Amino acid sequence: MSNRFGALKLGKWGNRALAGAVIALAIVFPLFFGKADGWVDDMTLSLAYVVMALGLNIVVGYAGLLDLGYVAFFAFGAYCTGWFMSGFFANADVHVGVSKFAQVLPGIHLNWLIVVVIAIIVCAVAGIVIGLPTLRLRGDYIAIVTLAFGEIVRVFAINGDEITLPFTNDAKLTAGRQGITPIDPIKLPGLDPFNPLNLRPWYWTALAMVLVVLFVNIRLRDSRLGRAWIAIREDEVAAASMGVPLVKTKLLAYAAGAAFGGISGTFLGSYLNTVNADQFAFSFSIFILAMIILGGLGSVWGVVVGAVALSLINYRLIPDVLNDVPAKLGLNFQLADLSFGIFGFLLVIMMILRPEGLIPERRRQLELREGVGAGTEADLVEVSHT
Predict the structure, then answer these.
(1) Where do the H-state alpha helices sit in 235-361?
(2) For residues 259 and 122, what is the distance between their CA atoms, to the nearest angstrom?
(3) 3-state class of 249 per DSSP?
(4) Which of 9, 22, 73, 367 is least surrounded, with the fewest CB atoms within 10 Å of its CB?
């Protein structure tokens, strides 16, 4: 399989032509289905998760900082839509850039693009806050701190309906498990608000988000900052000795990754029409992390493939195609009950057969397959005798 992927060397213009063909196919994809078809729904969710996975890839794949609390940034982004695109703060009367129908509704109703900017700022600050305590930590300890951060945010989301915000006339922080709903649909300048019965505009908006985030990811990877992230991932001590500012570089990784998670959160908040505390479970962080591991740590295109593949397995293959297989075998459960067990099994298989991922980053492939950057057993024996 490694040779098969390695044979896909098309050259500079070949790669661009292939990317153009894939993008063109992605643009016309919803035209092959009905406006509210399940495939369009599944692919819209997949594209939203691609944005989130690309954000986590900056933290985990580029900088090598294992983040198990990424769901927190999804929560911040989604709650930005709940606070600023609904009637949650019913005593407020703020309307900016929304439809005529939304202008007469109570609450705060801002245009989605404004909320995206707010979410980027909120999540970037939150990313720096989570990054500060981890600056002196490495490896598993970073994972534990970020996991705790994600759980703290989830607990606040669940119990936020009992927390009164100051200076807001008894407004609550969240609606807990009851959820904030309805959320205003996305309205882009010059267009009518998106209709939940026509999923094509939602899909194209998610695709546009993916293309923008892809461009930013690639530019960041090839920038001086991206090389600093990779240097920290490979050897933090060596990077510091070469003049890489560890604090600034790590915090920028957390902030950039969190911002992408917030963008996706604002889209999902409006698309799903609800912001519920139960959406922000720890398992969601693992779900996004699994997309990166499946596609290839640090690999932009691998993460895209991994995110789409796992999303379709989770939302199409298991519930719609294979869900009744256990019943046909005389077993009293549905396959959807074993979703995370199936994901774990897939990851184990990947670690055994192709640990570098489906489309690996070149550097990681060299390390794992060709031993570049890691001494051979003979070398280690020789060193031990010197």
Answers:
(1) 236-241, 246-272, 282-295, 300-312, 325-328, 339-353
(2) 8
(3) helix
(4) 9
